[in-house]
Structure formats: C-alpha cells, structure tokens
Amino acid sequence: MNPNALVPVLVLGLALAAAGCGSPEATVQATPEATPPPVDVSVVTATTGTIEAALEISGTLAPRSRVPVKPRLPGTLERVLVDIGDAVTAGQTVATMDRREIDAQVDAAIAAVAVAKASLENAEAGLANAVLEYERAQVLFEKGALPRQRLDAAQTARRAGTAQRDLATANLAQAEASLRRSREVQRDTTITAPVTGFIVERNYDPGAIPGDKPVVVVADLRQMKLEAGVSELEAGRLRVGMKARVEAQAKPGETFEGELAAIAPEVDERNRHFRIEVRVPNDGRQLLSGMYATARVVESTQTDVLLLPRSAVANRDGKRMVLRVQDGVVTPTAVTEGVTDGTRVQILSGIRAGDTVVADARRQVTAGTKVRAVAAR
Questions:
Q1: Mean per-residue pLDDT over the chain, rounded
Q2: Number of domains into which the chain is organized
Q3: For residue 232, is it within any domain?
Q4: What confidence score (pLDDT) does residue 364 get?
Q5: Domain range for residue 109?
Q6: Which conformational region is residue 91 in: left (phi greater than 0), alpha (psi within -120 to 50 degrees), or beta?
Q7: What is the pLDDT confidence band of residue 33, given thresholds at 50, 70 and 90?
Q8: DSSP per-residue letters across 157-222
Q9: Taking a C-beta distance cutoff of 8 angstroms, is the pair 307, 343 a contact?
Q10: Do residues 309 and 47 touch, judged by C-beta distance below 8 A?
Q11: Do the Cβ atoms of 60 and 182 come closer than 8 Å?
Q12: Global pTM value
C-alpha cells in the first residue's frame, strides 16, 4: 500500500478517538448558585397603649427628721427611761442627770431671795420713817420752831432711805434672776424628746458620763424621705408636688405612694447635680430607716399612643431606626421617638400600629435580607 494514502486515514481515526474520549460534562450548562435560607429573627408588633414619662431614682430611705438628744449640762446620768424602738412624744422625759448639787444651788438661791426681800422691807420701813421725820421737820421749820440745820439733816436722812430702798430692790431683782437661772439649770437635768417619734439609738446607761455621742436619737418615722441628685435637664422637667411611686427592696411587690417634696435651688458644684427629695407617708411603720428603695417620679402620662420596646429602636447612620419586616424582608425605617418609661418608647412617626419590627434593632441585618419571623418571648 502506498504510505501517503495512510495519512488521511490515521488523522480521521485520531479525531474520532478524541471525540469519543471527551467528557460528557463539557456539554452540560453550569447550574446557578443555591438561594440562602431565611434568617430567623425575633420580632415584635407595634401596639397602642398608655405610657408614663418618669424619672427613676434610688437610694436609702431616711426619716423625715432624725434628732440627736444631748444633755445641756455636764454630769452623770441618773436614769435612762427609754430603749431602742420605744415610741416617744415631744417633751417626754427620756433621761435625767444627777441633780443633787444643782438642787443645793437652787435652795441657796431661794434663801438669797428671801434675804433680799427682808432687806427690801427693812429699807422701805426706814425710808417711810425718814419721810415722816422730814415732813415733821419742815412743818416745825416753817413755824420757826426748828433750825435750818435740823431740816437739812431730815432731808438727808430721807435721801439716804430712798437710796437704801433702791439698793435693796436691785439686790432682790439680782437674787430672783439667780434663782430663775438655777431653776433653768435644774430643769436642764431632765432630758426630753424634742420631737415625736421613735428611739433609734441609745448610747449610754445610768451612771455614765455622756461624751460626744448623744444619749439617744429620736427619729420621726411617720414620714420617710429618699434623696438623690439629678442633672440640670432632669431638674428642669421636675416640679414640687409630682407624684412618686416608691418600692423598697425589702418589701417586694408593695408600692408606696409619695411625692416630690423638694428641689434644691442651687447646683452642687462637686458633681453638677441638683438635690431632690421624695417623701412618702409611713404611718404603719412598714418602711424602716436604712432600707434601699427606688422612687419613680411621674412627669407626664400619654394615652393611646404607638409603642415599641426600647430595644427595637437603635442608631443607624446617625438616625433612630427600626428594622421593619414586611413579606419576609427586612427594611430599615427611620422613626421619631417621643417619651419613654425606661422599657418602652413612644413612636411619633415612621411606622403604624400593627407593623412588625425586629425585636433587637442592634442586630446586624442588612436591607433586603430574607427572614423568618419568630415572636419575641
């Protein structure tokens, strides 16, 4: 066979072999990428309701008044008539001091007054006699029966008697003043309660000599107070008389009605806060001094307004936004907020009642993301 005639045959055979060994996948078109599944998100529904704008403060409850009672005199306690927890009224005796020496001083002052009164009576009698003698001398002198020298002597005696009477009067006034002072000191040996309340502290027993500490402390527990500092903006929204609801940690589930009773007119330079005071009646003595409590001062109440949990609104791109869910797709939506009660917030614009939004607006979900809504617990 001619070798040149074999070349086309070999080329044809190789082409057929290459075509037979080709991959079948080369003839199949590429399949599109799979669609990602929806993301599960917790959602809440915008509803209408009532919300209170309030300021919440916390601190330790203290009595409306708490008065330490100290003796006015140095000395030894003779009796202590009250103990911690006892109820006392204003003016009630709570303790007495040893007054034996003071009683002796009072007795001496009484005796001095008696002596001064006797001296005054004697001086008045002497003056009366001197006046009578002068009048007689004057009559005789006018009749020429008495020399001028005797008249002058009678007049001098009358003046001396007047001076003695005035001196005795002054001595009596001085003795009476000393007696009053002694009796005041004597009264000071009786220690009384300055206000009505309860004994919350007792520091000495009979026989002790009181030092720097008070003998007892009286607290008026009929009204308790809660003090706190607020910023300038908060103080500007508050006014005396606003209602407050007080809850004590030691009284779970119980609420006590009070009111904002005082706002300091001057800022504290140390922290730039204004001092406020909430007072709550405590006639039943359910609240005790030192209890930790919170007070919610109600500033205003809004009814029939659109509400969302605070967590459903967050800052995005410099705006307050919610992540609205519609037809399974997330759409960031700008909203305008109103008042808040710390848990919920009023929505003034941006969404409507019944709209569904992501419960936590801080969640990183981009616009257009497919989601599967799960009711928030």
A1: 87
A2: 2
A3: no
A4: 84
A5: 99-188
A6: left
A7: low
A8: HHHHHHHHHHHHHHHHHHHHHHHHHHHHHHHHTEEE-SSSEEEEEE---TT----SS-SEEEEEEE
A9: no
A10: no
A11: no
A12: 0.60
